[in-house]
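Reagents: none. Just compute today. Aspartate carbamoyltransferase regulatory subunit.
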Amino acid sequence: MINVSELKKGIVIDHIEAGHGIHIFKQLHLDELTDPVVLLTNIPSNKTGTKDMIKIETDFKINMNVLGLIDPNVTINFVQQGKVTSKLKLTLPREVVGIMKCKNPRCITNHEPVKDVHFYLVDESEKIYRCEYCDAYTKFKPEEN
Ligand SMILES: [Zn+2]
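Predicted 3D structure written out:
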């Protein structure tokens, strides 16, 4: 089991839905870090049965939008000198930039190199977003992005 006191300084992303840990790992590009990173999967949890957890020993600034999009129920613990100094609860972002791809095959963003496409939340429970260019709705799926 993870022991926060082993972590001098860093971030613990807790209560990740089981199976989402690997998507968060990839989307946050944690494989590119040279700092110690631990991904734990299928940890027994009272709340949800099982959960995933990521522990990063670094000052790395995590992209909260990416995290909130994949799993709005995670808790982020910031650790300093072996103690949790602050906790952060996430919500689904209202606006997403540069993470999603438009599902509309005729959308200009799928034919021209459009950078930083904005998507706006239209349905919170379904994670559906609207493309700023064509207004088409796209459901966010972590495994497809
Ligand atoms: Zn579009």
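The chain has two helices and nine strands.
Action item: order primers for follow-up constructs.
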